[in-house]
Amino acid sequence: MMVETKYMSYTKGQAKIKVTELVERFRDNIDVYKRSTYNETQVRHEFVDPFFEVLGWDVNNAQGYAEQYKEVIHEDTIKVGHSTRAPDYSFRIGGQRKFFVEAKKPAVNIKADVSPSYQLRRYAWSAKLPLSILTDFEELSVFDCRVKPKPTDKPDIARIKYITFDEYLDRFDEIYDVFSKEAILKGSFDRYAESTKGKKGTAEVDTEFLKEIESWRELLAKNIALRNPDVTIYELNYAVQKIIDRIIFLRICEDRGIEPYGQLQTKAESGEVYKHLLNHFKLAESKYDSGIFDFDADRITPALQIDDKVLKTIIQHLYYPESPYEFSVLGVEILGNVYEQFLGKVIRLTAGHQAKVETKPEVKKAGGVYYTPQYIVEYIVKNTVGKLIEGKTPDEIAELKILDPACGSGSFLIGAYTYLLTYHLDWYTRNLSFKKKALPKKYKAAVFQVKENEWYLTTAEKKRILLNNIFGVDIDQQAVEVTKLSLQLKLLEHESRESIDQQVKLGLEGALPNLDDTIKCGNSLIGPDFYDAQQQATLFDEAEMRRINVFDWNDDVKGFGRIMKRGGFDCVIGNPPYVRQEMLGVQKKYFETHYEAFVPTADLYVNFVEKALTLTKPSGRFGFIVSNKWMRARYGGKLRRLVKRFEIEKLVDFGELNVFQKAATFPLIVIITKKEPGTKPWYAPIKCLDFLDLSEEVRTIGYELENGALADEGFRLITEDALRIFDKMKAIGVPLGEYCRNTIRRGILTGFNKAFVIDRETRDDLIAKDARSAEIIKPFIIGDDVRNYQINFRERYLILTKMGIPIMQYSAIFEYLKQYQKQLEKRWDKGDHWWELRACNYYDEFKKPKIVWPEIAKESRFAWDDGSYYYNKTCFILPSEEFYLLGILNSKLIWSFLLRTCSVLGDPDKRGRLTQQAVYVTQIPIKKIDLSNPTEKAQHDKLVSLVESMLELKKKHHDAKMERDKELYERQMKIVDAQIDRLVYALYGLTDEEIEVVEQSP
Q1: Do 574 and 666 fall within a single domain?
Q2: Which end is more exposed in the chain, N or C (fewer Cβ atoms within 10 Å of the end residue's Cβ)?
Q3: Residues 551-561 pLDDT 10s
Q4: What is the rounded CA–CA span in Å between residue 113 and residue 569?
């Protein structure tokens, strides 16, 4: 049979016809195809390739794309030990893997044979792909590859589809709508993967490998501390990290075919394991000549004693079939994710010299370590490094310096390096006319050809780019070592044992560069002048020296002095730490005198933004992901004024979306060019994470911010139309703070909720014991109880103790509070015998009719209270009896205004949570009514009437016992709500076009 190599695009209907032809041919000759002599290569060419071609994939690269852009990568089945190096097919979009396909000959029973399914699942699980396919065309199995594979698994474990060839036509939609190229581009594959995600057994590779290396750390740390009583805490952390790094590096090289397979395993099977390992490491030193195996600098690990059992346990779990990991497809980015989490803990030594692994204090305070998702890294790199090198030659790019000043495990530097490697290879293949003439001599060392349309950068070229362009700093020495390891593993991609050995034979420098001069350990924010104002004695405090870890950016010898003398770095990128400065003690004094944007209450990232801009040379590019709070929060004022001096190009706001797993960090990408402002900033409020391309999402949903949007008092992230509407409202109304004569108050901070806030059962018990208790037990409301127009009382009560109330006269309450006496000692007066809530001099305000709202809200929630309740600190109260005001505050127009003026804890256009503090709410423009004007009085009276109707409907809805009655009241409330909105629009004189702008907002 002639295999069609021309790339053709099929409609879904045409694809089904083509599959019909394949099915009929297979059925007609099934006896031939099922023979053992009909091999895997034949079934691939005759059936598997055509099958995926009709699904829209350019299986044989008929379009002639360069290697990095091929849609389908074919891997040769190279045996490495008992496994193969890589799957048969890798299907990709934009160079990113989406799923694997492993092909077998039809003689293999895919449904019943254990080995093929385990093999495929190891590949896909290690590559962190959600779904992949095993097929011999006669059968097709789809696996959920998020389930950790085990050698004892039956072949149906994690299998979510099994389809035979004679079912392909009836079930064609199931296949096409998930695995066709069209389905991938439309997001159907990702949605299906998410919908089929199973809970049982689901354990992604980075989570499991993290557990693995954490167990190694504990084993090594305890054993080294036991067998080496003189080792210090710093030496112990260093040694454990080095040994783990070396084992991982060499094991990855084995699966990639750079090192002979099974070398580490052989060492573990002998006696004196560590002695043999050290010899193996020293051989690697001569081959790679990198810091990983630098024994001139490392005088610690060669002197250690380590038990054989410990090392055997670690190494034996890294090989097939016990190991679920296939290191040939385990990406450097995945490894970086693992290490980022790994670095969140540190080894401590007890008084008895026993090792103990603990979470770092700053990590514990932050609630964990959160790795930057790859799509964030790629977007920032594309809009900084990408813009910087666009159109430049390799010689021009060689002069550019790219920095991450808080590099962590190196995710941004790996992203930048990857981008540079791809750009250089593109440039060579695009500009040098390989097919027509020989390479110019100066470029012969840069690239080499494997076969037609398949070129790679040489090792020397990859080293040159890495050393010329990539720079990083981190305060954590372990993080620095991980960054170096990750970059070096990236460099080794597409290398082979032959290419590495050839360099050694030729007497060239080692295969890997030593990155000590480009990736450095130090505190990016604090220079050596930190000690100028300190006590002399602190210079010799080793613990403080290591903790502060000052870094001199202007040091020509060990710093980046030469780069700073040329004006700084061309590009600064990264994700600085989100650490509260309260944790930094004496460092805060330094920040106060050295950082213009310093505010004591701000997170550390504020200082990092300022420092990064200082390190960026004129016309250089800056790209960070930080919290979005600085754009509106009070503490961000100084930073706002600082960044406005430069051209803010893009603000990509993720609001409350879980970009960093479960961390509520409210991420924002900021892209700046360090020059005078020129173009208007592009603002993109991202609504969900269900996108294929963040760049396209930003382009589609974003909009230009108008002149004046970047206000010192807070960025107004609104369109020109919305800005005009709000200016119109301000011209018509007066600020709420001016409109109301009464002061807005915050609710009560008890100081100790466990004692003073009680439930219904406790309240009834106290009153039963002493009826007078009812005098100081009050219904108590928290922010979550406050809904629009009404209060949802949830049987929560406050014991209202305050100055002047002798608790002794309330005997039951006195006895009840005595159980908390130790915690309340500071409020115990042995003369008068009272405990007091936190000081509050406006308790009487809670007895008055008032408008109430929660500090944090995702929708309009201004409620009415006739004076029945007391409120906690998560609420604000405004003594007022105006239903007119209540109606305005609950309108869609005012919510739209608040979305653009309050400090936002989320994406405004995704109903992000607002912090509705008094400083923001008092700015709401309220239309004052002229009661002598019949038209205005009629509007006022109508609004009051509608609010009264709403309050009555809310009560009836709350009291209704039948579901159909509740639905009836809900429909009526929607009608009244819409009437209130229309009346408020009229009060502020909005046109139909302006109303449409407001209505289109959430």
Answers
A1: yes
A2: N
A3: 999 998 778 99
A4: 57
